[in-house]
Amino acid sequence: MNSGDPTEAEVWILKIEKFFDVIDCSEEQKASCAAFMLDKEDQRLIVWRQFKEAFYKKYLPDNVRRQKVGEFVRLEQGDITVAQYEAKFTELSRFARQLIAIEEKKTLKFQDGLKPYLKNKISILKLNVYSGVVDRALIAEKDNKELQQYREQQRKSSKSDGAHDNQEPKRFSSVESHIKGEVVQNLDVTCSICGKKHWSKPCYKESEACFDCGKHGHIIRDCPENKKFIIGKPKKENKMDKQKPRVQGRMFATTHQDTQATSDVTTGTIQIYTLLLEP
């Protein structure tokens, strides 16, 4: 036995006591047997209680025991697993058996030290058996781990799909830009015959066709297609004309003698078509 490890010393005492319970020996026999196992020569006039006191004084002094009790009181799961927490709980509980002498107290102490999400899940079950709480905590931890793995897979899958979708538009956009560039380059060419840019249309000067409709037999000035769109603008109606009342026209007749009698009348000859009108 390593005398420097207080935990090992406590475990050794517990094992010896279990052995003594099986063989059913007296207190003196227990002390003699324990001293023999420790290879101690002085085995006379000593009982088991005295042996334990001497043993603890040497291998597990009071200051070390108080330290272990404090560790047990402050023990929480923290970042370790439930299995690791349970192992540490069992190890330190040997130094504080008086604090968990009742099963219910031991159960509550273990439950209170669990991670918050595990504690919340198990506390509603109101379990009073220590082994039951440990089993439930292990199951809840396993379920939570599987859930986290599933969510992580979903997140990676969504991220991968998103990256694939983003690559497709870029690829098609690149192809589209390349095609557009070639088309624009082909269209933006000056004709070597007429010296103008008529895009993809044939040169009408070379074919002597109408520059407007592209047909033969006339030029753009006489293009019938162009005349279809020459429509006179309707005369705008004057508001003043709208307000004037319509007046019936009147005709006045005069004779040659009447014209000679006044100085502000001009006379002459008017020809309308083939008719000659004289005063």
TrEMBL record:
GO MF annotation: an example: zinc ion binding
Cross-referenced Pfam families: Retrotrans_gag, zf-CCHC
InterPro entries named among the record's database cross-references: Retrotrans_gag_dom, Znf_CCHC, Znf_CCHC_sf
Domain CCHC-type intervals: 210-225
Residue intervals passing through the bilayer: none
Disordered as annotated region, ranges: 148-175
Keywords: Metal-binding, Zinc, Zinc-finger
Keyword Transmembrane included in the entry's annotation: no
Superkingdom of the source species: Eukaryota
Cited SMART domains: ZnF_C2HC
Entry-linked PANTHER family: DNA DAMAGE-INDUCIBLE PROTEIN 1-LIKE, GAG PROTEASE POLYPROTEIN
Name under which the protein is recorded: CCHC-type domain-containing protein
Naturally occurring in which organism (per UniProt): Vitis vinifera (Grape)
